[in-house]
Write a structure and sequence with these properties.
79% of the residues lie in helices and 0% in strands. It folds into 2 domains: 11-197, Growth Hormone, Chain: A (Up-down Bundle), CATH 1.20.1250; 207-428, MFS general substrate transporter like domains (Growth Hormone, Chain: A, Up-down Bundle). With 428 residues, the chain is mainly alpha-helical. It is built from 15 helices and no strands.
Length: 428
């Protein structure tokens, strides 16, 4: 059964939640612009694939390696303060980098350091916001909120790159960094005046009654996932997605250029279709809310994602329009897959351990992306890029179809979440 989290009936939840959410959305736009500007700067300044790969790795490492520890800390600390401090540190770091650019004193290691700090404190912020949402939003609306989040991500996929390119043509890079500083204020200021509910803590003591260490907290989160077959299986499905689909679309420039004989504008069409699809799918989920059983929406979305990926595997070289349609389908189905999954965690996992569960799943999932890339590259070079799309599409369809017939998966929302001692005793 879903946990009935305590949402204060005396507070109008929509204005309360969207005051914070709206500020965060503006801040995310600024962050996306900075990310684009810094990557483009490194591209033009160095022309080195190693530099770009290092930058990507630096942005990934805090989530992959430190994520589970960060999630455990978020579960212990005041989440409103975590978001305020995280946004403030990122803002101060960005101001420092803007000053270095203005003085023409920036070095490569400065950019690497700022990217690391932004990724590190961004991980704190993301987990705090995700774990707080279930205490600010009524259970029946959580899937819709996830749809709106996915819609935001899809919209940013469409506008971030062209808007960043436009601004780089009008402003020096420190100007774009300044825009991010201003946008961050939209996230910080509402937190000064808006309450963020805190969960009751039941999972911070070890077997002997002492304060649970951070490492014990990480292990308890891992054991929590392993002890729940339905959650474990669905989590492994997300690992499969990250292992196949994300690396496949990372190879899209080569597929467009070498197989379809296209140019940069054709690649832009394919990527824009993905972003438009995510925006549309998120909007539909935000209005509709999905099926009453979230797992059905998620499994059907995963099946649709696989079918859209398979389009790339069977499309003739002369039919780029089919690939654009496949990209649109994958985009639409991504919110349908991931939105209900995150909402399931928010409605079935106890609030005081949600951050560590979110961070653990994100850590494992993100860690599979570079592994998938290392495998996808050689396989695609040997057998063709479409083979990897075929593999990824078939895997998604198979996982979704199988999930519909696995009782632990289909009954994931019926689990008894009281689980006495699951983290405070037996799993600590």
């Amino acid at each position: 059964m879903a946990i009935q989290f305590s949402v204060d009936d005396n507070i109008p939840w929509k204005s309360h939640f969207f005051t914070i959410w709206g500020g965060q959305a503006v801040s995310i736009i600024g962050s996306q612009l900075v990310q684009f500007a810094l990557i483009w700067y490194l591209t033009v300044r160095t022309g080195s694939a190693t530099v770009l790969a290092t930058a990507a790795l630096i942005g990934l490492l805090p989530n992959v390696i430190l994520g589970p520890f960060i999630g455990t800390l978020v579960d212990r600390w005041d989440r409103r303060r975590i978001m305020m401090v995280s946004d403030s540190v990122i803002t101060l770091a960005t101001i420092g980098l803007a000053i270095l650019f203005a003085l023409d004193a920036v070095a490569l290691w400065h950019i690497y350091l700022i990217m690391f700090l932004r990724a590190l404190f961004g991980c704190f912020h993301t987990n705090a916001m995700a774990a707080s949402t279930s205490l600010m939003v009524p259970v029946e609306h959580l899937t819709r909120i996830q749809g709106i989040n996915q819609m935001l991500n899809g919209g940013l996929n469409v506008i971030a790159a062209p808007l960043g390119a436009l601004l780089l043509g009008l402003l020096p890079i420190q100007g774009i960094l300044t825009i991010d500083v201003v946008s961050a204020l939209f996230a910080i200021v509402p937190l000064l005046f808006t309450q963020v509910p805190q969960p009751e803590h039941h999972s911070s003591t070890a077997n002997d009654g002492t304060q649970e260490t951070v490492w014990q907290g990480v292990k308890s989160g891992l054991r929590y996932v392993i002890s729940w077959p339905g959650l474990l299986i669905v989590s492994l499905m997300t690992v499969g997605i990250n292992f196949t689909i994300i690396p496949a679309f990372s190879l899209m420039p080569l597929l467009v250029k070498d197989y379809f004989g296209g140019s940069a504008i054709h690649l832009g069409w394919v990527e824009a279709a993905m972003g438009i699809g995510m925006f549309a799918g998120g909007a539909v989920l935000g209005v509709w809310g999905g099926f009453e059983r979230k797992i059905i929406t998620s499994m059907l979305g995963l099946m649709g994602m696989g079918l859209g990926t398979l389009v790339f595997a069977v499309t003739p070289a002369s039919a780029l329009w089919m690939a654009i349609g496949g990209s649109l389908c994958v985009g639409i189905m991504t919110p349908m897959t991931m939105g209900p999954f995150f909402a399931m965690i928010q409605t079935t996992v106890e609030p005081d351990i949600q951050a560590r569960i979110f961070s653990l799943l994100n850590s494992v999932g993100a860690g599979m992306v570079p592994v998938g890339l290392m495998v996808a590259g050689p396989v695609s070079d040997q057998f063709g890029i479409q083979v990897w799309f075929l593999f990824g599409g078939l895997l998604c369809v198979l996982m979704a179809f199988s999930g519909l017939f696995i009782p632990d998966v289909m009954n994931i929302e019926s689990r008894d979440n009281t689980i006495p001692g699951v983290v405070s005793e037996s799993l600590a």
